[in-house]
Amino acid sequence: xxxxxxxxxxxxxxxxxxxxxxxxxxxxxxxxxxxxxxxxxxxxxxxxxxxxxxxxxxxxxxxxxxxxxxxxxxxxxxxxxxxxxxxxxxxxxxxxxxxxxxxxxxxxxxxxxxxxxxxxxxxxxxxxxxxxxxxxxxxxxxxxxxxxxxxxxxxxxxxxxxxxxxxxxxxxxxxxxxxxxxxxxxxxxxxxxxxxxxxxxxxxxxxxxxxxxxxxxxxxxxxxxxxxxxxxxxxxxxxxxxxxxxxx
Length: 248
Fold this sequence. Notes:
By secondary structure, the protein is of the alpha/beta class. The protein is 46% helix and 16% strand. It has one domain: 2-enoyl-CoA Hydratase, Chain A, domain 1. It is built from ten helices and nine strands. The strands form two sheets. It has a six-stranded mixed beta sheet, sandwiched between helices. It is globular. It starts with a strand and ends in a 10-residue tail after the last helix.
């Protein structure tokens, strides 16, 4: 099983279970979309990971030309499912959240993390860019923070993101999940109707974000994936060598 489920105190935990770094496959993403779409009594859905880190994102092989369109479409459906879920979606990050794993964490309603955890979008170093991040981060974060994350490919520590208001709370690793559960418990005592409508009200701008995401996806598929550097960067990563850029 690549996704483990556990319900406790009106909180549904979804545990990425593809250690050591929980690379996401299409099957896992489809399962997550299905869970978020179904009628569930859980007021809070929590995403967390097994192994050494939260999630290292999608499989790079799934970004090659024969699979990339389906991969981008499916991941976009997952992000939409986060926004449309009537309860709260929370990520608890240990170790790190990279690539699609970082997009999942940042697009959650609340974000809790281990002190020292790394968050990053390294795609630019592979000659590509993260579509969901490019569509959503400029709206979710101040522009200079969004730009640094997307354009540098460098990771940012959880403590810095907490200082910036992007991570809600950080905890030491040994107490992370216990403290996170305690932090979330009061949310389960709230009226689910009030939470659902408050989330709906706070997402009135989302149709525009969906349009932005579709536009960004087309830039990725119709323009970026036709560049020589995109294929070179992805191939070099899979072959464990440095890319040779042609800048076209």
